[in-house]
Write a structure and sequence with these properties.
3 helices, 142 residues, Alpha-Beta Plaits, 26% helix, alpha+beta
Length: 142
């Protein structure tokens, strides 16, 4: 999943380039506020044909504000909107555009989510037949 790692790296670089310190997603303490946490994961696969598939990567950014106030969360949502909404991200020579952002405040954090779609080759091997694949699954039964 090289592209997922590339998306993560690109989002982190954009956040750090705009003054936010980014920490590992699972770090729960020992960070300075304001702090950002980024999680990217493949959330959907769509088979276009036997050679290509479309992958949807979901991006979740959590920002813990310095003062943990509603006003700062509103300002942070505008800052993230200015940074990502309608913008392209350079991901390993590809330039997808972010068309939708969603925000969700939760206590002292603001969550920003969006998706990035890309097309990639499948693992299709014309030398492996359908029956070969089914035999290798190893599913038992009666």
């Amino acid at each position: 999943m090289k592209t997922i790692i590339d998306i993560h790296r690109a989002v982190v670089m954009m956040l750090e380039g705009n003054g936010l310190m980014v920490y590992p997603w699972n770090q729960q303490d020992g960070f300075e506020k304001p702090a950002a946490f980024v999680n990217v994961f493949p959330s959907k696969f769509h088979l276009e044909n036997k050679f290509t598939e479309t992958v949807t990567a979901s991006v979740v950014i959590e920002v813990v504000s310095k003062t943990e106030t509603w006003e700062e969360q509103v300002a942070t949502s505008q800052r993230l909107k200015d940074l990502f909404f309608g913008k392209t991200i350079n991901i390993d020579g590809r330039h997808p555009t972010i068309y939708d952002l969603e925000f969700e405040p939760e206590k002292s954090s603001l969550f920003c989510t969006f998706s990035i779609e890309f097309t990639q080759k499948t693992d299709y091997d014309p030398n492996v037949g359908y029956s070969d694949v089914m035999e290798n699954l190893g599913i038992g039964g009666y």
